[in-house]
Sequence to fold (504 residues):
Amino acid sequence: MRARRHFTRSLRFRLTAGYALLFALLLLGTAALFRERLAYTLNSEAHDLLDQEWVAMKGYLHIDKVPARLHAIEHEPCPPYKATWEYDKVDPDEDFAVERLRRVYVLRDATGCVMEVSTIYQSIGTEQPSQVEAAIRSGQPVWKRRVSPHGIPYLIRAGVIFDDKHHSPFYVAVGRPMDEGEKILNRYTWMYAGLIPLSLLCGCLLGWFLTGRALVPVMEVAETAQRISGSNLSLRIPPRSAGDELDYLILTFNRMIERLESSFQQIRQFSTDVSHELRTPITAIRGQLEVALFTAKTIDQYRDATLNSLQDVERLSQIVRALLLLSQAESGQLALQKTRVDLAAVVRDVVEQFQIPAEGAHVGLSAGLPAECPAEVDRVQIERMLSNLLSNALKFTPAGGRVHVALRSLPEAIEIEVEDTGCGIPEEHIPHIFERFYRVPAQETCGSPEPGLGLGLSFVAWIAKAHGGRVRVRSTPGQGTRFTVTLPARVAVPPVLEPVPTEA
Ligand code: ADP
Fold:
C-alpha cells in the first residue's frame, strides 16, 4: 500500500499522467473539431447538390392546365393541372437524372392537393396542407430533414414553381438520402475511437520513458547525497556538460558539498586546535602540581608551583571565556549595544591605556585623530577591537619600532587604522589570520615571546562585520603591517548644527 502511494506520488508518475491527460485532451479536441468540420462540409455539399437538382428539376418539369373533360377523367381530385417531365428520353444521362429527381419528390398544388409523389417521399411523410400554403406564401426555399422507416436520413429542399402559362404557384420538394455522409462520419468516429486509446497508450509509454530518462540525473544526485556522510564529503556528482537545468542543479549541489566539506574541515580543525590549546596548560598544571607534591620541600617551592599553576589556570579560563564569547558572537546571541559616542574620544582613551606597555616595549605609540567623530556604535566592542589590534601591533613590533593609530571620517565611511613597523605577515598567511587559533608560525623571533591565543583577530573581524563594516590588511614582512577597519557612514551621526541667531 505504502509502495503504491509512493509510486503514484512520484514525479515520474505525475509528469507522465499530466502529459497523458494533456495529450488526451488535445486528441479529443482535434478529433471533435475535425468531425465537426467534416459534418459541416458534407452537409454543405448535400445542400449544393440539392440546389443544383432543384434547378435541373425546374428545367424538366412543366405544368399545364388540362381541358375540363380530360381532367374530369384523369386527375380527380386535383383539378385542373397536369405535370409532365420533358427531356430527351433517348439520352441515358438525362433519363437517369430525371429518374433520380423523381425518386424522392412531391408536387402539390396551391391548395395542398398532392399531384405527384414518389414512394420514398410518401414513406418519409408528406407535409400538412397548411405547411404547403405557408411555403407558397413565403416563396422562400424550405430545408428539412426526415428519416425513413428504415432509418435512412433524407435532406429535403422544398420551394415554389409556377406553371408556364398562368403563373399559378405549385409546391415542389426534392430530396436525397444522407446515409453516405452519415456513413463517412461514423467511419471517421470509429476510426478515432480506436486510434485515441492507442495513441494515448503510445504517448504514456513514451512519456514514461522520457521522464524516466530525464530524471536519471536527479536520482544520481539523490543517491550521491545518500552516500555522503561526514567522513566522505569529497564525493562529487560528475557534471553532464549538457548546459541544462539539471547541470545547474548538479553544479549547485557540488558547490554545497564543497562548502559543507570546508565547514566540516574547519570544525575538525577547530576541535583539534581547542584540544591542543587546552592540553598545553593542563599538562603544565599537572607537571607543577606533581612537582609540588613529590619534590617540593620548602614553602617557597610550594608557592612557586602554585603560582605557576594559577597562571596556567588563568590562561585556561581566558581561552574558555574567549571561546564562549566568540561562539555567542557568531551564533548571534551577542547583540550589539549601540549608543551615540564620540569615536575620537574612544580611540584616544584606548591609545592612552597602551602608552605604558608601549613605553615598556620601547615602541613609539602615536595617534592622528580628528577633534571629534560622532558615531552610533557599541563602545565596549569597539574598545575590544582596538585593544586587540593595538596589543598585536605592540607584540609584533621589536623595540625601537613605531605604532600609529589613525581615525578618519570620510563622507561614505569611517576608517580606523592601526599601523606598525613590526615584523609583518608573510603573504601566504594573510588569508588565514582571521581564523580561530591561527598563528603565523616562526614569528617568535620578532616582538614579545608571549604566545597569543590566536582568537583576537577573529573578534576584530566579527565586531567589524556586526557593525556592517570590514577589515583589510596590508603587510610587508620585515617592514610592518597595517590593519584598516572600515565602518559604514550610517554609523556616523551628523553633527547637530547650532541654530544661527537671527538679528532682531
Ligand atoms: P594572537 O592572540 O596570537 O595575537 P590573533 O588572532 O590576534 O591572535 O592574531 C593571529 C596571528 O596573526 C598572530 O598570532 C600573528 O601571527 C599574526 N598577527 C596579528 N597581528 C599582527 C601584526 N600586527 N604583525 C604581525 N603579525 C600579526
